[in-house]
Design a protein that fits this description.
The protein is built from 7 helices and 7 strands, in the order βαβαβαβαβαβααβ. By secondary structure, it is of the alpha/beta class. The chain starts with 13 loop residues before the first strand and ends in a 5-residue tail after the last strand.
Length: 250
């Protein structure tokens, strides 16, 4: 840190992680906690208490919030709860997301498109809109959203593909909106990661040898490592960027 001219002092900051009870979100929540952050875990799944217990075992405070990110009012209320608990909100990580149905475009209903967009895009939109004012008030903030290379086109996952393209645009737009006020907004674009969004879709043979340049699919902790840097005081200049973490180019 001593060599980073513009680095802010390291503080016991507060992070809100959506989708933080499992998979990539859980890995990021625990990685942030390991760096001295108190964590609010926002998730509708049953594993929230277990993750909070793991965070507390790392010596940090945890707050579990059962909130659907498609509910704008509930998202704003959750952020208000975080600020009421700790007096601040410094870091936002948006991991809540759904893959949607994997099928031909002709079979994708408008209702399914709307469902995927509401979770993946509206959820991130609501969270940023609720969180960023608190960061601006303190003059420091870091936001990271998980996107996907599916934004480039996924014929069997058109709603998901469109949603991740929209997330890219959201990050690019917000990343240029507030850096002068100390708030950076970025994204992380993983390749396939060995979580429950990926593992059930492929055979054991494929998972053992997926043909990627790195020779394997990724571990969620590898994504967490990248996200932690982008959320840290060590990140003094990166904003509006999508960091590829795919074990290969493209």
């Amino acid at each position: 840190m001593n060599g980073l001219r513009f680095a802010a002092p390291v503080e016991r900051r507060v992070a809100l992680v959506t989708g933080g009870a499992r998979g990539i979100g859980r890995a990021i929540a625990l990685r942030l906690a390991s760096e001295g952050r108190d964590i609010a875990v926002l998730d509708i799944g049953p594993d929230v208490p277990a993750v909070c217990a793991e965070i507390e075992a790392l010596g940090q405070q945890a707050l579990g919030l059962s909130v659907d990110v498609t509910d704008e009012s509930a998202v704003h209320q959750a952020v208000a709860q975080v600020v009421a608990r700790w007096g601040r909100l410094d870091i936002l990580v948006c991991c809540a997301g759904v893959l949607g149905k994997e099928q031909d475009f002709s079979q994708q209903s408008a209702a399914e498109f709307d469902r995927v967009m509401r979770v993946n895009v509206y959820g991130a939109y609501y969270c940023h809109q609720a969180a960023i004012p608190h960061m601006l008030a303190r003059g420091w903030g870091r936001c990271v959203t998980i996107t996907s290379a599916a934004r480039l086109g996924a014929p069997q996952l058109v709603p998901y593909s469109v949603s991740k393209g929209a997330v890219w645009s959201l990050v690019s737009s917000l990343g240029n909106a507030y850096p002068a006020q100390g708030v950076f907004v970025n994204g992380v674009e993983p390749g396939r990661v060995l979580t429950q969004m990926v593992i059930p879709r492929f055979s054991a043979e494929h998972l053992a040898n997926p043909g990627t340049p790195i020779g394997r699919y990724l571990d969620d902790n590898e994504i967490a490592e990248v996200a932690e840097f982008l959320c840290s005081e060590r990140n003094t200049a990166t904003t509006g960027s999508i960091w590829s973490c795919k074990g290969g180019a493209g």
